[in-house]
Each structure stands twice: as structure tokens, then as C-alpha cells.
Write a structure and sequence with these properties.
With about 350 residues, the protein is of the alpha/beta class. The strands form 3 sheets. It has a 6-stranded parallel β-sheet, with helices on both faces. A 4-stranded parallel β-sheet has the order 7-6-8-9, sandwiched between helices. A two-stranded antiparallel sheet has the order 10-12. α1 packs across α3. The longest helix has 16 residues.
Length: about 350
Amino acid sequence: MKEATIYDIAKHLGISAATVSRALNGHPGINAQTAEKVNKAALALGYQSNKFASSLRKQKSNTLGVIVPRLNSYVMSSILSGMERVANESGYNLIISQSLELERKEIENARTMFNSRVDALLISLAFDTETFDHITPFIKKKIPVVFFDRVLDHPSCTSVVIDNFKDGYEGTKHLIEQGCKKILHVTGSLQRNVYKDRLRGFEAAMREYHLDFSDENVIFTSFDNDAPQNVMEKISEMTTPPDGIFFTNDACAAGTCILLKKAGYSIPGDIAIVGFNNDPISKVVEPNLTTIHYPGIEMGEIAVQTIISHLEGNLNVNQGSTVVLRSELVVRDSSRRI
């Protein structure tokens, strides 16, 4: 079937192709009645605008590429919500993809974004990403890149993060102040800044209060559905169970809390628990989880505002700066002993 063109719409309505083009592109010189007629005719005739050809002519697509580790994450969905709002208000669209925590998938996604001629890239890294090579083409073409949450230090890219070291320290200090002395830290891949910095904060608090810190205090997990059971197995292997656990993920904390209670442990009497992110599950599990509030919506808003300010010539994101957002400890019953 032949593709409908602006000339077909013009012939159908008995107006010029130039008028049709201006109406379809929202030109202020076209009155509302004409614009409505053109758009209705375009829909009826099955007209599809060629955005790709248009972006080639303008050297601008008004599209931002976004790569996240997983879409089924409360933090990431909150960040995307913030991004979507600011992008839409500024006349930009988002192309969103997920790496599924795989570097190879992240590389494929970046290549697709690059070939789609996005105006900018926003990216949060997968668990196992080790190379920056898939980002280099963007830098060479002067396509701005902003990292968020899970970031890489690069002199030509801006990052938007929280203070993960501070949060790791504050969560651990809280458990210590509740009387915990044998504390476990459940975390993810140390290739990522978020987990590495939270572990550094955990270690700093443990050493400051002269508590034992060693590899035995740390459990690494991928935070998949089996993570709570894996944590329980580690605890069951210990001669003396912990009296406090600091999770860097609320879902894992909640799942482990349920399993601990089934095993006869009192929360927080026997084991006090702190999570991370302030997911909705933190207020559903019993007892409610003490956690670190993560400003996901704000992070998404700031990341896109930063990119758009660069694209409009008001800010340079190619100077390797870092934006640090405020996060805070939210104390609830899972850790409150005093």
C-alpha cells in the first residue's frame, strides 16, 4: 500500500503542501481550525511523519536516550517518572531501554541509541560493566552524556548521585546506637560506585566504634529473587548469628525479614534490620523497615534538566562535574530498640 504524503493530504483538503507541512509541525502561523483539519486528514489517510529524515535535516531529534539496569526497580521507575515529566514539559521524548544488568546488553542499547541519533544519553550502569568503550562514540560526536545513580568518573561527563558513603555510615551507626555489635552488610557488586561507597561507609562506622570488621561481615548478592534465601543460608552457617543487618536493598531486606521471623528470630529484638531506597515494600512488611530514603524522582528531574540546559546552551555537562542529592535515614520498627 502506497505511503500517504503531505501532498496527498494537500490534495484531499484542497490546500497547499506548505500549509500542510506547517500545520503538522505546529507552526504558529496556522490557525487552529486548519491545523485540526490537517491532523484529522493525516490520521484518516494513515500519514506517518518521517522523524528520522527530519532529524537529519535539523541535526536534532528532540529525543533523549535512557539506559537503566532494570525497569522493575522502584528506584529506577521513580527516576524515570521524574525524567519523563521534565522531558515532556520541555518538548523532548525519551527512548528507554534496560540492560538487564548485563554489560553486553548495555553495549547493544548504547549502539541503538547512537544510531537513533538521540540528542543526549542518560545512563545508569549494569552490575558487570567494566569498559567505557560504548560511551566513547557519544563523547567523540559531542553528544552529551549524564550518568545517574550508578556512575563512572569521566572528565567529559556529569554525574547525578546521592552520598552513598554517608548513607552507608549513617545506617550502620544507627544499628550500633541500637546496641548491635555483630553487624552484617548485604550488598551488590563492588564494581559499582553505589555498593562500593556504601560498604566504605559501613566499614568506617564499624571501625570508628571499634567493632570487628572483616570479609565475614559482608555478604555479596545480585539482589535477585533468591537473594533472601541465600542470605538466610549464610546466617545459618554462622556459629553466632548477627544482631544487626544493613541491606543496601529494601526488597532483599524485606524478604530476609520474613524468613528470619519464620525461623523464630524476633525483629528487631534478636536481629535489627536496616534497608535502603525507601521502597513501598518497606512500609508493608512487618515490622516496617528502617531504610535510607532515595530521592529517585528528584534524581530523574535533575538529570534531564541538566541535559536540556546543556542542549540549550545554558550549561556545560562536558566538564566532569558531580551533582549530589540529599538522602536520609528513615527510622522505623525493624531496627528501633531504644
